[in-house]
Amino acid sequence: MRMIHAATATNIKRGPGATMRLLGIDIGGTGIKGAPVDLVQGCLDAPRFRLATPQPATPQAVLDTIALVVEHFAWTGPIGCTFPGVVRNGVVKTADHLDPAWVGTDAEKLLTEHFGVPATVVNDADAAALAESRYGAARGQTGMVLVVTLGTGIGTGLVYRGNLIPNSEFGHIEIRGRDAELRASNTARETRKMTWKKWGRHVARYLQALEHLLNPDQIVLGGGIVKSADHFKDQLKTSTPVVFAALGNEAGIVGAALMAATRTDSQGEEPAADTASSPRPPAGDPPPVRTAPATPSPSKPGAAAGSTVRKSSSSVRDPAHGTKARPHR
């Protein structure tokens, strides 16, 4: 994973009337959505446009759908795109929720050659984690932040002191002998017709397992399920403060644009600027966003930023309950 540093986007215009805009696209197992993103404010700069994920979700079929999103906004600049699986240097390594033909595909090269503009492709939960750390519920948090997205599957992103630790994929740990996604994803709730209370308990067990493995300072729950938080938040009894994503289901779009805008590579690529007609409130240079090679041992700096959903003094989940990391698929 290449270094990401906000200060390197030197050709993006600043000042009154200027905004850092990039197109963010979020590929999911059921939907592909995108929008231009205002990277000064950390929000969508136009209503998002969503299309169903094609079935089968082959590289060509997904590329054709992305093209419709790009055409919808008449976009001609750089593109940031998330992918629901492990992505290393733009190459897809896993694709559990899309067609297996994606595995081994250089997704960045595919998009760059098709659209003729620089394209950045990253793991979807990593993008959401960076967005929440920079603009959302984890802003100002100096310790270990674990972002968990609950949707078609379970995505996880780790940020420690501004450093992204990519491709964590903790949605695939085993709990009581089964992949966590089979009980705690939103798809599992819908498929098994679970009540909110029952599903919330499965999510709580999953979060307790992650506490035992990672000891984070804050957990951020994201994904489309955030809008239904009132139905299950009382079940989330954890030792770590849990907050809901401030950016909701838009975190992936915002994070994709953020990573595309602030990345530099060995060729010295830099994003183009887009100047808006209406002025924005002044904003200083954002803090750097970097990637880290390994997970340090986090310290506990105190209370996390954001609204706490539930905090309990109970101990974290005992490993004897059968939580373990499964060898990666």
Describe the structure in your own words:
A hairpin with a 2-residue loop joins β10 and β11. The chain starts with 20 loop residues before the first strand and ends in a 38-residue tail after the last strand. The strands form four sheets. Strands 1, 2, 3, 4, 5 and 8 form a six-stranded mixed β-sheet that branches. Strands 15-14-9-10-11-16 form a six-stranded mixed β-sheet, covered by helices on one side. Helix content is 23%, strand content 20%. The longest helix is centred in the middle third of the chain and has 19 residues, at 196-214. The chain folds into two domains: 6-127 and 249-262, ATPase, nucleotide binding domain (Nucleotidyltransferase, domain 5); 140-248 and 291-321, Nucleotidyltransferase, domain 5, CATH 3.30.420. The chain is globular. The protein is an alpha/beta fold and 329 residues long. Mean pLDDT is 81; it is low at 1-18, 264-321 and 324-329. The chain contains seven helices and 16 strands.
